[in-house]
Amino acid sequence: RAHLRAERNPSLQPTALVHELYLRLVNRDSMIIRDRTHFFAIAARLMRQILVDHARRRLADKRGGGVTILGLDKLLEPARTGGVDVLEIDEALGQLMSVDPRLCRVVDLRFFGGLSIEEAAEALGVSTATVERDWAMAKAWLFQRLFPRP
Fold first, then answer.
1. What contacts 24+ positions apart, CB below 8 Å, involve 81-89?
2. pTM (2 decimals)?
3. 128 or 53, which is more confident?
């Protein structure tokens, strides 16, 4: 809800996002969910896909649409007002995935899934200290990609 509220022109309501997430989850016949954290990991990834799909649809809109804007993290807010474009985040995360897949998964779990450090650590099977380091490194890497210095 907080991320959607930060949009410049909100058109996707939190309830609609949750409904779309539910539909995508129940339409997966072969999905086996091991535990609560595994569920949240899957939900976080699907939520990211939904937000990216929504942003792409809005860009393709005949009336000009717009771009869905989200704040990446409170640490990034002072650097640029108005938030970050979801498509920019997705593109940057695609690059990050090729550099370090675990860092990308940490961003998915923390940013899109809203998991705590402890929950993300459990989902990834690593220590909380590792997730804290990965989260800090991922934020720095994304900050560098999303807000390049002139």
1. 82/8, 83/6, 83/7, 83/8, 84/146, 85/55, 86/51, 86/52, 86/54, 86/55, 87/52, 87/55, 87/56, 87/59, 88/146, 89/142, 89/146
2. 0.59
3. 128
